[in-house]
Design a protein that fits this description.
Radius of gyration: 17 Å
Helix content: 25-40%
Distance between the termini: 44 Å
Order of helices and strands: EEHEEEHEHEHEHEHEH
Number of domains: 1
CATH topology: Aminopeptidase
Number of strands: 10
CATH architecture: 3-Layer(aba) Sandwich
Number of helices: 7
Strand order of the largest sheet: 1-3-2-6-10-7-8
Length: about 260
């Protein structure tokens, strides 16, 4: 995009904080045309909702602060738009992430994982002890789960169990999908460490999560793909348009973290 991206960091650090420091990471693409790998026109009008993960993180930390929950939280939001311009990233470009890994950008419409890569690295380096990221990341999760469940992916069984339980409690349902070394092999690059868009359509939501896993280190992490649940649920208690999915789950997690200390 012609517009410069922004990395937004918010900290809530009450004096009486207990439990692990939570890292909340959100993807906030304010409008996603796909960039040079441009989307079809009919698929573009709702792409103002591609900032839903970042919006959920922003509202969640605000609610946590208003409720004065005794838990430390660091929120990191990668905000940008994905638009064609003379300054756009081109398919085939190679970029270097914050942790030094190189990435082949073979599809500029797989931009969300590039944004989250640095945001996750940054959150980890700030000393968070648990991470949850929210992103409208893949169309494949809509095919798999529709708008009923969000996709959950994790490197830690205990942490994902806590997140899934919070999802169930709040009614923002999540369903865990697997990670596996064979899926991780699919995101290895030919000319760089990683490929942001492997050829073919195999397990696209899973390979996106495998890509993100490279940027969290050993920190317990859950990725929530909300592409199917962030928009257009048309339920009586949600209505049309954006749903706000994820806010209640993140607030619930913060409350549980404080209670468990």
């Amino acid at each position: 995009s012609y517009e410069e991206p922004q990395l937004i960091t918010l900290r809530y650090t009450p004096e009486q904080a207990a439990g692990p420091t939570l890292g909340l990471v959100g993807k906030a693409v304010t409008f996603d045309t796909g960039g040079i790998s441009i989307k079809p026109a009919k698929a573009m009008s709702t792409m103002k909702a591609d900032m839903s993960g970042g919006a959920a993180v922003l509202e969640a930390i605000a609610a946590i602060a208003r409720l004065e929950l005794p838990v430390a939280v660091i929120a990191v939001i990668g905000a940008t738009e994905n638009m064609p311009s003379g300054r756009s990233v081109k398919p085939g470009d190679i970029v270097t992430a914050m942790n030094g890994k190189t990435i082949e950008v073979n599809n500029t419409d797989a931009e969300g994982r590039l944004i989250l890569a640095d945001a996750l690295c940054y959150a980890r380096d700030q000393g968070v002890e648990r991470i949850v990221d929210l992103a409208t990341l893949t169309g494949a999760i809509i095919i798999a789960l529709g708008s009923t469940h969000a996709g959950l992916f994790s490197n830690d069984d205990d942490w994902v169990a806590e997140v899934e339980n919070a999802c169930t409690t709040t009614g923002e349902l999540g369903w865990r999908l697997p990670l596996h070394p064979e899926y991780a092999d699919l995101v290895k690059g030919k000319y760089a460490d990683l490929d942001n868009a492997p050829e073919g359509r195999k397990a696209s939501s899973i390979t996106a999560a495998e890509f993100l896993k490279n940027f969290v280190g050993e920190v317990p992490w859950v990725h929530i793909d909300i592409a199917g649940t962030a928009w257009g649920q048309t339920r009586p208690y949600v209505g049309s348009g954006a749903s706000g999915f994820g806010v209640r789950t993140l607030v619930e997690l913060a409350g549980r973290a404080a209670d468990s200390a």
